[in-house]
Design a protein that fits this description.
40% of the residues lie in helices and 12% in strands. A seven-stranded parallel β-sheet has the order 3-2-1-4-5-6-7, sandwiched between helices. α2 links the parallel β2 and β3.
């Protein structure tokens, strides 16, 4: 398995899971075009698109940092054109950018609703729409969208606004799998079974206590790497969970990803258990 020489276009990779996925591909010598809004350091968030690019290059890849808003179609089109001009095409499209608010319908303002659905749904659609023409005819092209399996049991239909936004990403990805089958472009979704140690978990989902019950971003990066090396004409239309992908790819001990060894892992939204049924470390 290798992504050497491949070109990845990824949204929101200035930190966290997106950066981990980009660096994993870069270690093979991949080209990474990353679009993110963070051009200047944020008081509460680590990293900018430029510091991420530096880390990607230190990992072994070539980086093209682009400041842009994926809700703006013209901005996305210009970013993809710039990536194609520099690297010659697009092999991999990763939809990572996301905004989160777990409030109820009476708590989430329309402005925040529009932000989440603009980034998650419109942004995913815009990035895919711009990348697809440059992926047709490439060797093993993949679209990977970081969104959950669509669960319709009552307990998973809230929080309403965030659920709508994340499910919108998944619906887009699964629809594209069918639309693009004839072109041999894979489209899959990928989601973790547990909390993953990111700024969102630290700042919004429970602070240090939640971080101690999370897995490292490498659990997502390693799973994404495994998916992106699958044959695109065969491995498409799947709603995948990171830990399941890792076990299928030969990982035998998921505890290596735990931030705190032996901790009681926190289960992510739209997932029932932290580990696949029958898993024993």
């Amino acid at each position: 398995m290798t992504l050497a020489g491949k070109t990845m276009f990824i949204s929101g990779a200035s930190r966290g899971i997106g950066l981990a996925i980009a660096k994993k591909a870069a270690a093979d010598g991949a080209n990474i075009a990353l679009i993110a809004k963070t051009a200047e350091p944020h008081p509460k968030l680590e990293g900018t698109v430029y510091t991420a690019a530096k880390e990607i290059e230190e990992a072994g890849g070539q980086a093209l940092p682009i400041v842009g808003d994926i809700r703006d179609g013209d901005s996305v089109a210009a970013a993809v054109a710039k990536a194609v001009e520099q690297f010659g095409g697009i092999d991999i499209c990763v939809n990572n950018a996301s905004a989160i608010n777990l409030g109820s319908t009476t708590e989430v303002s329309l402005k925040r609703f529009d932000l989440m659905n603009g980034i998650q749904v419109r942004g995913t659609y815009a990035v895919c729409q711009a990348c697809i023409p440059h992926m047709i005819g490439r060797d093993n092209p993949h679209i990977l969208t970081l969104s959950p399996p669509i669960r319709l049991e009552p307990e998973w239909l809230k929080p309403t606004a965030y659920m709508m936004a994340k499910y919108g990403m998944s619906l887009c990805a699964l629809a594209l799998a069918e639309e693009l089958r004839g072109d041999g472009i894979a489209s899959n979704t990928l989601w973790p079974r547990t909390l993953v140690a990111t700024a969102a978990v630290q700042n919004l989902l429970g602070g240090d206590e939640a971080m101690g019950r999370a897995r490292k971003p490498a659990v997502y990066a390693d799973a994404a790497y495994a998916v992106l090396n699958k044959p695109s004409r065969e491995y498409t239309g799947n709603a995948l969970l990171c830990e399941d992908v890792l076990l299928e790819s030969g990982v035998t001990d998921l505890s290596v990803y735990d931030c705190v060894p032996g901790s009681d892992l926190g289960v992510d939204l739209w997932v029932d258990t932290p580990n696949p049924p029958g898993y024993r470390p």
